[in-house]
């Protein structure tokens, strides 16, 4: 099931930052994406959220920041013998250009903010003390309007960009090297992405970029935060999630397309990363369609 494109609320015509309180038996959405950034604070209810290729249980206080075009869905599924609890959430949406109109966001002091938006392409769960402060700001945004709401958004982005209590939710479909990565690592990442169905060896990558195996491995880990096998496996799992959600290919076909040595190996790796088997993942993604 491909995610559908959602249009921004009509409130966007009047407000540069849309902030709405969602109440009812569900969150009023399906598996979708939109060009706006979104911040969702769950106050009550809900059973699970889907962000990119990740499915996680929901609990009150859950706070997530997503960049533009990240597929997502929030659900409130009934369970056997238990009544459905109504949900309550605050949803904030704004265009990614809003805090960066002009070239000021490109200045060196804005590197943390640029990095925040880059990381938000995978969805970010806000945790710890940062979540407590961010929750207060989001609740204030619901009562503010116009420029006051914009100022609160900027305060929130400043808080998040300087916090170490943010955690990526989804694996990137194409994991990217960190800003400032050497051309050699970028070349290796490009090779990996275009040869994913094939066996990929560290020695071959090192030879392609003109380094020894050990030197290349150290440079790759420093630049991406992952070893080569971790990076390749993450990319393969991310692609498998995409194919499970958006195609009717069999598990065996997906395993082959993503470069796993066998369907059994694919099943083991997928369960380790997603905490469910591939067909269960597909079923959970499409069950609200």
From TrEMBL:
Keywords: DNA-binding, Transcription, Transcription regulation. This is Helix-turn-helix domain-containing protein. It comes from Prosthecobacter fluviatilis. InterPro entries: Cupin_2, Homeodomain-like_sf, HTH_AraC, RmlC-like_jellyroll, RmlC_Cupin_sf. Pfam families: Cupin_2, HTH_18. Residues 186-284 form the HTH araC/xylS-type domain.
């Amino acid at each position: 099931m491909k995610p559908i494109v959602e249009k921004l609320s009509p409130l966007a015509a009047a407000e540069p930052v849309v902030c709405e309180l969602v109440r009812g038996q569900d969150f009023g959405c399906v598996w979708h994406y939109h060009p706006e950034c979104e911040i969702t604070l769950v106050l009550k209810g809900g059973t699970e959220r889907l962000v990119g290729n990740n499915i996680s249980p929901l609990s009150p206080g859950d706070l997530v920041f997503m960049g533009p075009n990240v597929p997502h869905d929030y659900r409130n599924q009934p369970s056997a013998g238990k009544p459905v609890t109504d949900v309550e959430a605050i949803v904030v949406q704004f265009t990614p250009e809003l805090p960066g109109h002009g070239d000021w966001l490109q200045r060196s002091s804005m590197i943390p903010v640029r990095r925040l938006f880059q990381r938000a392409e995978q969805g970010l769960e806000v945790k710890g003390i940062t979540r407590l402060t961010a929750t207060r700001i989001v609740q204030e945004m619901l009562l503010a309007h116009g420029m006051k709401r914009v100022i609160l958004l900027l305060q929130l982005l400043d808080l998040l960009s300087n916090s170490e209590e943010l955690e990526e939710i989804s694996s990137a479909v194409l994991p990217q090297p960190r800003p400032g990565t050497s051309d050699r690592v970028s070349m290796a990442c490009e090779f990996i992405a275009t040869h994913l169905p094939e066996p990929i060896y560290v020695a071959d990558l090192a030879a392609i970029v003109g380094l020894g195996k050990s030197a290349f491995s150290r440079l790759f880990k420093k630049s991406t935060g992952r070893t080569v096998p971790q990076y390749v496996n993450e990319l393969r799992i991310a692609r498998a999630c995409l194919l499970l959600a958006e195609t009717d290919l069999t598990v065996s076909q997906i395993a082959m397309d993503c470069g796993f040595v066998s369907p059994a190996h694919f099943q083991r790796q997928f369960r380790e990363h997603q905490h469910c088997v591939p067909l269960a993942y597909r079923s959970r993604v499409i069950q609200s369609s």
